Amino acid sequence: MHKISYQAISLIISVCLLFTVTGCTKSEDTVKREGAYLKKDITLPDGITNVYDVLGNGTDSITIFAIMEESDCILWETQDYGETWEEKLTIPKELKKSMIFCGTITKKGSLIFGAYSDILDKAGKEVDLLQEPKMYGSIDKNGNLKKFTADIKDNAMIADFYEYDDRVFACDINGYYYEFTEKGVKCLNSEMETYGTPYDMLVLDDTLLGLGSEQLDQYDINTGKKKEGFSSFAQFCQNQMKDDSISPILCAGSEGRIYYLGQTGLFCYDTEKKAEEEIMDGAHYPFAALDTILQKFRVLDKDNYLLLTVENTMPLLSLYTYDKNAKASEQKELTIYALNSSDSLQAVIDGFREKYPNVQVHMEVGIDEKLGVTLKEAVRSLNVSLFAENGPDILVLDGLPVNSYIRQNKLVDLKKTASGQSLMDGIAQTYEKDGKLCAIPLGFSLLDLHATKDVLRAGTGLDEIAGQVEKLYKNGSAAVDRWEGDSIFSSLFYCYFPECLDGDKIDRDKLRDFYQNIEKIYSNSEYNWTVEVDSRDTCRLDNISPGNMQNADMMIHINETQLMAGKLGTLEDIQLAYLIRKKNPKVICNYFDDVLEKRYFAEMALGISASAKNSKEAEQFVEYAVSEEGQKRIAGIGESFPVNQVIFDHIFESEDTRKQEYVIEDRNGKNITLKAKNIEISDYKQWKKNIAGYQTAVYQDTVIKELVMTTAMDYINGALTLEESVDQCAQGVELYLNE
Asked: How far apart are CA 396 and CA 362, in angstroms?
């Protein structure tokens, strides 16, 4: 069980529990072994989103109870530590419309689960998951479902299950404990005051121990009565927790051996000898990182342990193996910092972990909405650590002030790291300054502006475009794409705001013109730019972010709009833009027609901090990230193009290149099918040639973008006058650039 870091529960109901606990006292008779445990990450089946339980069958067979996107399989087995996985069990038809949120694998091979009943029938509707009907039951090896009659207090969610001598126990998120039987469910502590979800629980010698932040609970599983006084193991747990600042987990081994895993380390307690043994010191092992959520721990034998954790919302399964000739220091570490999480970056991290199992990668994400960490706060905190030479090893420059870091020599030269790779020269050298290559993009996408000839007939400056939009609106035309207003203004920022910057100063006259033109386009659109998203949230101009401009969403209606903008980050984006342009000769597309200076986004550029504590491992990571092996990992994700030339060529030359079909609507709601097979081979070659000539990277400082566009919105909605908005923006940007 795992502290509502039971990953399935925390993700589904979006509950964030923060626990702070203290303590760890080591016994004087702790046995020290020579050597150390080395960590190897086990590759999970592709598409796994949640792992509820893991079971080790000896030292070479591992079974997981998990769910996968677009798959009915819920039980997998590997005999080769994740090299291959075999599907063992599919979800019963009675559960097809339900959603599993917790579960465990029994020693007999059956599954015990908790699920939301028939919740998939409510797709698109607003539901309160805490109040939704829940179902509990078991699934045997043949896939047969048996439901438990369960009366859970307050319809609470079961957090996890625990099997003991063929008996099934559980705990809900409120801290109540139950025994599940064929006759129904018995609550062990129904009259007791509880303290929320425990960190973990186990049963030993007919005693249920619940490990929580507020207290340790002990109940007799036969009478349901609370036991007074701590057992020796409970006292041991309490001592260990004094110095732990992450939620620990427990595991019962054989012959009365109990394992405790927390930030302080892995400890074994012998209940017969009343003796404690330190197995791994947390100071030397990656499971002790604050950003790691401990989920399940399994003992294969005294030299091999399985650990299931969660990092950046994704499950990670690791094997710790004892090597008598190794040292704990051989377990290297690497810290990577990014403002936002990314599937592409995570894919590269996963591959790096497989290739370098002795390097533990810690991923830090700066912006955390749950904890209320804003963009500006995240950047300021990072800058403080960098200038104190206590920052991360690798910086993912996804909107960070890279020019400032280069100017102040906070990034090392990566020329040697890049020298052996076949990279796209212009894009790979985006951050080359004074003979030093300060960062290398992991990928890139293209900034594109689409407009009809009517809009651009007077020119491509922002003054001319705003004037034409005004004329179109007066003539009753929908001038701007209604669904992508956010992207329109983001793209106009990228295209035209850099003209307002002069080093670390703002040209107020140019900024004034920029704001006036933005306001003119906004006021002369057919829509108010506050649109519903999924019938719940609203998308406003002041909520813009660089990553939400997908080309496929921008061009839904042929002939309806005269101005569209956004990113081209995949081959499908380019194909769709090309095909729509071919369908509607009035559309001019910057990527094909050279309307504006061609610009690209240097996506997730990787830089190594000049004060990196693990510089060798950092170089290994950057080298792997831009290699063919690393770039293959991101090629199919669809967030951006790979910067490696070999993998980029493969995208354009693969057999699937011309198999794409796009179904879109015209302005009358009629579906139109556009087929990529209609594109000439010569055009594909021209596309690649065009991209090779791109030289200008988009200005991506996210803090400045937020300052500029938030102030623009204040001016547009009347909260500030034009002069007030210009002064406020200029002062904010200049202060930020000179901090």
From this structure: 13
Dump pLDDT digits (tens) for 488-501: 778 888 888 989 98
What residue has token string 């354009």?
A: 652
Tell me which DSSP letter residue 323 carries.
E
pLDDT single digits (tens) 265-288 = 899 999 888 888 989 888 677 787
Say if residues 519 and 715 touch (Cβ distance below 8 Å). yes
Can you read off the two tokens belonging to residue 343? 């599937």
- Beta strands 443-452; 641-642: pairing state: antiparallel
DSSP state letters, 119-145 = GGGGTTS---TTTS-EEEEEE-TT--E
E strand map for 324-440: 332-338, 359-365, 394-397, 432-433, 436-437
**What's the length of the chain?**
739
- Looking at this protein, which amino acid is placed at residue 334? L
Cβ pair 411, 607 in contact under 8 A: yes
For residue 368, the 8-state DSSP code is B
Nearest to 564 by CA among 689, 665, 479, 446: 479
**543 in Cβ contact with 461 (< 8 Å):** no
User: What pTM, to 2 d.p., does this model score?
Assistant: 0.60
Residue 676, CA atoms < 13 Å, CB-side half-sphere: 17
**CB crowding 71-88: b at 16 or more within 10 Å, else e:** bebbbbbbeebbeebeeb
Q: Which two tokens stand for residue 414?
A: 């990566």
Q: Rounded distance, CA 449 to CA 467, Å?
A: 17
